[in-house]
From TrEMBL:
Keyword match Transferase: yes
Taxonomy of the source species: Bacteria, Pseudomonadati, Pseudomonadota, Alphaproteobacteria, Rhodobacterales
GO molecular function terms attached to this record: transaminase activity
PROSITE patterns: CYS_MET_METAB_PP (PS00868)
Pfam families to which the protein is assigned, alphabetical: Cys_Met_Meta_PP
Key word Transcription present: no
Entry protein name: PLP-dependent aspartate aminotransferase family protein
Amino acid sequence: MKNRQLSPATRLAQALHYLDEDTGAIIPAIHPSATYVRANDYSERKPYIYRRDSNQTTDHAEAIIADLEGAADTMLFASGMSAASAVMDALPARAHVLAPDVMYHGVLQQFQKLHALGRLDVTYYSTGDLTAMQAAMRKGQTALVWVESPNNPDWDVTDIAAAAKIAHDAGARLFTDCTGTPPCCTRALELGADISFHSATKYLNGHSDVTAGALSVRETGDWWDEVFNIRKLQGTVLQSFDAFLLIRGMRTLILRVERATQNALTFAAHFEGHPLVERVLYPGLPSHPGHEIAKRQTGGMYGGMMSIITCGTEQTAIDTALACEVFYPATSLGGVESLIEHRKTVSGEGFKVHPNLLRISIGIEDVDDLIVDLEQALTRAAGG
Ligand SMILES: *Cc1c(COP(=O)(O)O)cnc(C)c1O
């Protein structure tokens, strides 16, 4: 066994072969202590001093994600948004940033706000369009290129390796948000990203009972120390109870994503060309414009995220979501239970989204139950 590199499936299932040497427990304890005593000579007893810095349970969850990402280091935050915001806060004043014009609405809102305040200088490129990205770069000036792939809610795909080359040629760092395809599908750091972000609220935890955000990096350094400092001073470290749940959730990550992918492939193929559906947006479908890149970047593990654009009016789309009996009409994604949402209602005005778009997170249920549910909902919403 000594020379054998264990596979991610094994390492995840065993939470890195955790074992408490004192008790023999194979499940980690939750360490809730907010403070830690000093050493006999009154020096700090590293590594733990105060809960806002870090804690043992969260460190364990970070080690699991770092292992999965092939990262030099990982930090966990209380939400995806607090992790994303820490990266923005670590940028110098008025730094130039490139961001996609269609992306997760919370991150976009944050960029719009910081740009309006003069804190950052944000240029938007057409999502997934590398020519537009290249044209918007300012050599030697652009600090960060933000990529979301697959992007929310259209599921366009960006070629991460090509984006990394564009960013690096101009001296910028590449940030990727691949929340829709967790690191067992897309290994963004290996493709060339400098910072890999995941909303761990979604697939990594997978049970809709934690909010968490993960940042993983290829290289540590002063910049990364600054991100740690921001987390510490803003108090946005992931708390130990949530870290415990996240560790438990991640043990089944690969099983869950495999099942969600199988379900999604069957589901998407069923509704493509359906008389009440105008379009199905899913990178796993061969007809999807990003299919070949997605296949390469995920190894065929496309995940369970898709959108459908219904025929009829915007109200038909809303009525379809409300008529579902198995799907929950709720926001979020990547959980074991399937969700459907009318995206325009949720993101509000000012975001580019088709009025008839329903975002669907396919879970691990029986796929026939999901297909029958959406069939009846579409028929009822269409007045049938
Ligand atoms: C959910 C999500 C976020 C934000 O994460 P939270 O955990 O909700 O704060 C960012 N990006 C994407 C793509 C997401 O789906």
